[in-house]
Amino acid sequence: MIVRHGGRSDVGIVRSNNEDSYLVDPQSKLFVVCDGVGGRAGGGEASRLAVEHIGQAIARNRRAVEDFGDGTGQVAKRDIALLLERALSEASRRIRHHALAHPELSGMATTAAALLVSGNQAFIGHVGDSRVYLIRNSVMHLLTEDHSLLNDMRRRGRTIDPSSMAAGYQEALTRALGVLDTARVDLLDLEILPTDRFLLCSDGVHGVIGDELMQQIAIHGDAQSAADELIEAALQQGAPDNATVLVVDVVDEVADDRAMRVRRRLEAIQSVTIFRYLPFPDLMRVAGIAQELSWPANTPFFREGEQGSSMYILLEGKVVVSKSEVELTTLQPGAHFGEMALIERARRSATVSARTDCAVLMIDREAFYGLLAEEQTAVKLLWGLVRMLNARLRMTSDELTSLKMGLHG
Fold this sequence. Notes:
Layout: E1 2-10, E2 20-25, E3 30-35, H1 43-60, H2 62-70, H3 77-101, E4 112-118, E5 121-127, E6 131-136, E7 139-142, H4 149-155, H5 167-170, E8 186-191, E9 197-201, H6 203-218, H7 223-236, E10 243-251, H8 258-270, H9 280-289, E11 291-295, E12 300-302, E13 310-316, E14 319-323, E15 326-331, E16 336-337, E17 351-354, E18 358-364, H10 365-372, H11 375-408
Antiparallel strand pairs: 1-10, 2-3, 3-4, 4-5, 5-8, 6-7, 6-9, 9-10, 11-18, 12-17, 13-16, 13-18, 14-15, 14-17
Helix pairs in contact: 1-3, 6-7, 8-9
């Protein structure tokens, strides 16, 4: 996997000093954008300390990152995610302690958006309102969610007109590095594909030119020219804040069918009611916990009466469902079964077996509960569960109605 990058930072038209900082470490394949919190003393110092500490923390553990990427060591995906999380969280402590030792810098803080590439995986760590986007097949997806007062109010259903808010409230963050000794870091990992392009930027870019224009610009040219064009667009819009952008291109020189397999997995996951309406980042989280397995013909996935802990999504092959040794139906690719095991520890209501050799995605209840620990993802998943249970209730009601009509017919 080859990574190419381009980057640029500009003070903007209004500000007199640049409080943004960014880091590019080609050896570790680490990319970071930090935006010193405006209006606070030492914002530039905070962002500088953050990129310095994050870079050093990953460099110290480069061997683990490389072992994971090569698949030669005992390093798991979760280990790399935790490594990035610790790097950001410990940067918060370093900034805070630096401010305590220098009273003139009291209150300094910074946002952070970090991308770490290892093998065919991308790991993203995020605090504040700097953003990470993915451009895949010329479509731009926002992978992070702003930790800002304005976004928090919108999430809670409040209709907000930013122009009616004082500037201080518009820019207020609900999370930043340097406020506490530890920071709550949003994490995301996803499988990357050839031609994927990542975009990291401060709010001096995304808050000025908007997503639509960003996509129009960012899908063209090489990484450096795209970065330059985005900064120029911000300057043309008046650039009231510092503007920083990193563009990271992924080039996979090994021709394989990974793109098709990833697309197939995502389409299969989206076919399940629980996951159908998830936005792209949360869909990536589900894909991250789904295991792709081969299942030989005439082998049961589970038997009636057994305790269950996993659901399955059929990618290839045919599956037969039976109850009390009576065959009920045959499932085709795209079908899913065993999903109630994600909700409760009930016994299986039927036996499900592979009629032919099958390929399936398996989602384990413990991993699913791990997703529920993510506040924003949990709300969306629980809404999906409500939809699924509602659909099951309607189906049961229809079956009872048909049965009654048959009995009275």
